[in-house]
């Protein structure tokens, strides 16, 4: 089972100055930056997924959070996706480079933004190893398996169109000599309809199926979908789970013959989760999570800047508190400051970040944060980690502050998660 990371242009400045919080002099975005696989050994994933909607936005579609510039788009197509992602060295020869349409970008449109021919040409021109047929997302998943005639016209239209596109996409791939492995996109409104779609795709000639629409589904529903699907398709037919948001539960899905899945969860949780920001592997094969210590820049944090403009905070005072907190964290890491004093320094600054008009709510929030801070500092998990990120920057990895720290923490999470998946596979063999 391969773990793919979905490309979101997450790279960092390898020469970033953490003490002065600034990029290296003359740093050029992308050209001087490094992806996770360039920063870590072993590589923290088995491949990358790139969405066509990020590289080639369709007219009339809202901008994606990940957006390639025109120059980047041209360079990717000219040099090939492997070279563009710097995944072209001999050490990456077995890495998957998978393309999909990024159907979330056009989910509100009547039809997919790209035709099967346009999608084929994009995959072939860029040199992807695998490519998913153009689909149209169906979010509903009714576990009572209602019949087709009970569903709304739009859902039936999306279901039929996804299958029609898959048929035409495969025809083009075969006519052009199969320059990449075609993957049939599976959509449906219930476990049974998804299974029926998968069987139709298999009958068309697909040997690799990409199961879509899983993002909002609960774990038990995903189990129902995979059971229904496996009941009707061949054991040797490969399965990919698109946008698998339940990545931390992957150990519960090893019995379905899943070949691959993609997720951004380990990296995103580094800075989009309230308390589970830093992954730590456990002896029993599970994962434990720690909250990062939030020390935002006083002159850039929106909450602090708003308070300063309103005259609630004093800018110079905030900057001094920020500096004291950073100094305390770094001294604690070196054994030059006590746990108690470090917690007090963090909370002295934190009181301004959790400011609320409700004094009781403010006090409860501070108590909750103090417990999280104390737990993280007591464990000091970054000191026990041997990954390339933690070894290089130490305590900076646990500080929630600026993209260069937060992304590096995400890189650490990817590495821990990838090894977690590998351990699961070893234990199930």
What name is given to the CATH topology of the largest domain?
A: TIM Barrel
What are the low-pLDDT stretches, counting only 5+ consecutive residues below 50? none
- CATH class call of the largest domain: Alpha Beta
Beta-strand content estimate: 5-15%
Structural class: alpha/beta
**Major beta sheet, strand line-up:** 1-2-3-4-5-6-7-8
The H-level CATH homologous superfamily of the largest domain, spelled out, is Queuine tRNA-ribosyltransferase-like
Number of strands: 12
Number of domains: 2
Shape label: globular
CATH architecture of the largest domain: Alpha-Beta Barrel
Q: What Rg do the Cα atoms give? A: 24 Å
Q: Averaging pLDDT over every residue, what do you get?
A: 94
Give the topology string: H per helix, E per strand.
EHEHHHEHEHEHEHEEHEEEHHHHHEH
Number of helices: 15
Q: How far apart lie the N and C ends?
A: 12 Å
What share of residues is helical? 40-55%
How is this fold's topology laid out?
Layout: E1 2-6, H1 36-39, E2 47-51, H2 52-55, H3 70-79, H4 81-84, E3 96-100, H5 116-126, E4 130-132, H6 153-175, E5 181-186, H7 191-204, E6 208-211, H8 219-232, E7 238-241, E8 260-262, H9 265-272, E9 278-281, E10 287-290, E11 293-294, H10 302-309, H11 315-333, H12 339-353, H13 359-379, H14 388-393, E12 399-400, H15 402-428
Parallel strand pairs: 1-2, 1-8, 2-3, 3-4, 4-5, 5-6, 6-7, 7-8, 11-12
Antiparallel strand pairs: 9-10
Helix pairs in contact: 5-6, 6-7, 7-8, 9-15, 11-12, 12-13
């Amino acid at each position: 089972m391969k773990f793919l990371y979905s490309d979101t242009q997450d790279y960092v400045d390898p020469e970033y100055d953490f003490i002065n919080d600034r990029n290296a002099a003359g740093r050029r975005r992308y050209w001087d930056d490094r992806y996770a696989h360039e920063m870590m050994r072993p590589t923290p994933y088995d491949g990358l997924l790139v969405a066509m909607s990020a590289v080639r936005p369709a007219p009339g579609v809202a901008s994606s959070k990940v957006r390639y510039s025109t120059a980047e788009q041209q360079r990717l197509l000219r040099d090939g996706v492997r070279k563009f992602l710097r995944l072209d060295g001999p050490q990456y020869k077995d890495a998957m480079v998978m393309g999909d349409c990024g159907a979330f970008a056009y989910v509100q449109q009547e039809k997919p933004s790209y035709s099967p021919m346009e999608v084929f040409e994009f995959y072939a021109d860029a040199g992807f190893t695998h490519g998913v047929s153009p689909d149209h997302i169906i979010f509903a998943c009714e576990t009572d398996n209602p019949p087709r005639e009970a569903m709304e016209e739009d859902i039936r239209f999306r279901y039929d169109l996804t299958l029609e596109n898959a048929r035409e996409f495969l025809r083009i791939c075969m006519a052009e000599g199969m320059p990449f492995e075609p993957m049939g996109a599976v959509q449906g409104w219930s476990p049974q309809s998804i299974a029926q779609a998968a069987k139709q795709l298999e009958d068309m000639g697909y040997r690799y199926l990409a199961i879509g629409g899983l993002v909002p589904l609960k774990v038990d529903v995903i189990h129902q979908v995979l059971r229904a699907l496996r009941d009707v398709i061949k054991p040797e037919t490969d399965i990919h789970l698109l946008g698998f948001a339940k990545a931390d539960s992957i150990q519960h899905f090893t019995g379905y013959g899943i070949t691959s899945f993609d997720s951004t969860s380990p990296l995103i949780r580094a800075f989009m989760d309230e308390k589970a920001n830093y992954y730590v592997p456990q002896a029993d094969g599970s994962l434990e999570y720690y909250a990062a210590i939030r020390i935002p820049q006083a002159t850039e944090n929106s909450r602090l800047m708003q308070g300063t403009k309103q005259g609630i905070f004093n800018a110079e005072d905030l900057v001094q508190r920020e500096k004291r907190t950073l100094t305390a964290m770094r001294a604690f890491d070196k054994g030059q400051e006590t746990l108690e004093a470090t917690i007090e320094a963090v909370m002295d600054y934190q009181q301004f970040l959790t400011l609320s008009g409700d004094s009781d709510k403010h006090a409860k929030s501070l108590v909750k944060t103090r417990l999280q801070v104390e737990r993280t500092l007591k464990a000091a998990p970054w000191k026990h980690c041997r990954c390339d990120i933690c070894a290089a920057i130490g305590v900076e990895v646990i500080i929630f502050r600026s993209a260069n720290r937060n992304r590096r923490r995400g890189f650490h999470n990817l590495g821990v998660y990838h090894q977690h998946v590998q351990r699961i596979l070893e234990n199930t063999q």
